[in-house]
Amino acid sequence: MSEEVLSQGEIDALLSAISSGEMDADELKEEETEKKVKEYDFKRALRFSKDQIRGLSRIHENFARLLTTYLSGQLRSYVNISLVSVEQIPYEEFIRSVPKRTILNVFSVEPLEGRLLVEVNPNIAYAILDRTLGG
Q: How far apart are CA 122 and CA 69, in angstroms?
């Protein structure tokens, strides 16, 4: 809710409109309780600031380091995962960039709201599966 300060003239005009019957006080309350809808353009989805992008880069670098350690232990093989870049692109462009044969996983992480999408190239998934099954 935005905190607007009304001038004395605006307050007097509101009070006179309510007392004369031009305006109903219940209508004003309903307008305040209605949700404000903000339009969002998915074609030009640039939502993150440069500081937020840097923060996401640090998070992903940390994740890559932890995943390298985890996969090295699980697969008993040398694994090196590094972050190439963090970019912000529209969803439509992301969908077009995903290869036709790929592994897409949608899952939720309980303390967080929403769902996560992870795309794994089949070559990587097959190599992990082969190594896990003793190949």
A: 21
Does any domain span residue 24? yes
**Is pTM beyond 0.70 here?**
no
Please state the domain count of the chain: 1
* Contacts (Cβ under 8 Å, ≥6 apart) of 75: 128, 131, 132
Domain that holds residue 22: 1-38
Q: At what angle do helices 50-75 and 122-132 cross, to 10 degrees?
A: 30
Placement of tokens 């640039």 in the chain: 46
* CA angle in degrees (0–180, nearest 5) for 108-112-113: 75
- 38-62 per-position pLDDT tens digit: 776 666 666 788 898 899 999 999 9
The token duo for 102 is 């790929």
Question: Is 101 a domain residue?
Answer: no
